[in-house]
Each structure stands twice: as structure tokens, then as C-alpha cells.
Fold this sequence. Notes:
Elements: E1 3-6, H1 11-19, E2 25-26, H2 40-63, E3 70-81, E4 84-86, H3 92-102, E5 106-119, E6 122-136, H4 141-149, E7 170-174, H5 177-181, H6 185-193
Parallel strand pairs: 1-2, 1-3
Antiparallel strand pairs: 3-4, 3-5, 5-6, 6-7
Amino acid sequence: MYRIILASESPRRREIMETMGIAHEVMASNVAEVITETEPSKIVQEISALKVNHIANILKNYSGDKEEDIIIIGADTMVFYNGHALGKPKDKADAYRMLEMLSDHEHEVLTGVSIIIRKHNTDEAISFAVCTKVMVQPLSRKQIEDYIATGEPMDKAGAYGIQGKFGIHIRGIVGDYYNVMGFPVSEIYETLLKKEIDIKNL
Length: 202
């Protein structure tokens, strides 16, 4: 029996876990995100690994010599347009700049996932990245301003959330919808199944 830890305070990731029937605990990581990689897929994996390693160390220090089987899952999602990372907007003007850039264009959403499987006090680390292509409809100035006025873009990479009010402006996607939300749960599930771990039945 594994104790499953979600190393994220994201309400969207928690909601996905709950919707899929995966019992879990939340331990938010506040580790500094120091980036040394330059390739998009490597950047998101590096940040997600920092998160899970931080939680793994906390749990190790807390439990001491106590043996406990644990699965720690961490993720980091970034939006890339023409190879440039779009993080969370600094202000409304920055949000406008990002949305205008994405208007009538295709961009990529990458999520890095890191998993630590701790069994008998031995850790196995897994890391991968999932990419989804997103096509946005042409946006008028008013449409962008109206969306920014909802306040929704301000805490989201790329200044939008596909599951929210911006969904009406999404022309299409190629890849995993949940990945755009920030948590490619299908890939996570399949990865753990290969390790003979079914997190839905724990």
C-alpha cells in the first residue's frame, strides 16, 4: 500500500486526481526554481524534479528510519511560443502581450512530470515531459481585454486556462487535454502501471 503525495498546491491538479479517483495527500513544495536547462522539455522536467526531491527530503527527515512506501508526484507546466517560454503574467499589460501573441497561432504546452517511488527506504526516480499543441482563434482587442477583466489569466502560464472562460477561444488541440490543464494524468497512470502500480486501486 503506497501513500501518494501530490507535490503541488495547484487546485487544478488536485481536482484531476480527485476526479480520477486517486486518493492522495497534498504537500506543496516551496523550493526555489533554479533553472540550468535550456531545452523546453528539459526545463519543465528540471523544475518538477526539484519539487519532488524537496518533498522526498522532507519526508525522509520526518520519518527517520521508519519504512513507508510512498509515491511522490510533481509537475510543472509551461507555455512555449516559437521556443520562448511564457510564464505567469506580471500584470495586465503583460497578460495582454501574451494573449495577443497567441492569437490566431499555434503554441505548445509542456508539462514536466517527476515521480519518486519509495519502497523499503529505496527511491526510484522517473521523469518525463508531455507536449500538447494548442491552436487559438483570432482574438480582437475587446475579447482580450474582456478576458483579462475576469482576472482569470493572472495566475496561469501563458495568461489563460483552457478549462475556464478562455476555452471558448480554443480552436483545437493536438494531444492530451489534461496536459494543458497542467497534469497529464493518463501518462502518469500508464507510467506507474509499467511498474506494476495501479494508483486507482491503492
